[in-house]
């Protein structure tokens, strides 16, 4: 899930680039502004979710912190919701 929302060629990055960004560039100034604001909102959500995921992974890998299985499970739903919010081109 981390890769799906954070990798440049993951599902989120690819669909944002080929769907929203391409549409924004092809539209008028108003369309561009609206869609770029949508990309900013998506980026904010992605950073929040991915940041929490990486904190868990780094804590386990570098600080010998056990992973509470509930926390990663709580992050999967918002990550899936974020992916679902981007329509496939």
Describe it:
The model has no long low-confidence stretch (mean pLDDT 90). By secondary structure, the chain is mainly α. It starts with a helix and ends in a 5-residue tail after the last helix. It is built from four helices and no strands. The protein is elongated, with a radius of gyration of 15 Å. The chain has one domain.
List keywords for this structure.
89 residues, mainly alpha
Name the poorly predicted regions.
none
Number of domains: 1
Fraction of helical residues: over 70%
Mean pLDDT over all positions: 90
Strand content is under 5%
SSE arrangement, N to C: HHHH
Biggest sheet, in brief? none
Number of distinct helices: 4
Regarding quaternary structure, what we see is single chain
Radius of gyration: 15 Å
Question: Helix and strand layout, with pairings?
Answer:
Blueprint: H1 2-6, H2 11-26, H3 29-63, H4 70-84
Helix pairs in contact: 2-3, 3-4
Summarize the structure.
It contains four helices and no strands. It has 89 residues and is mainly alpha-helical.
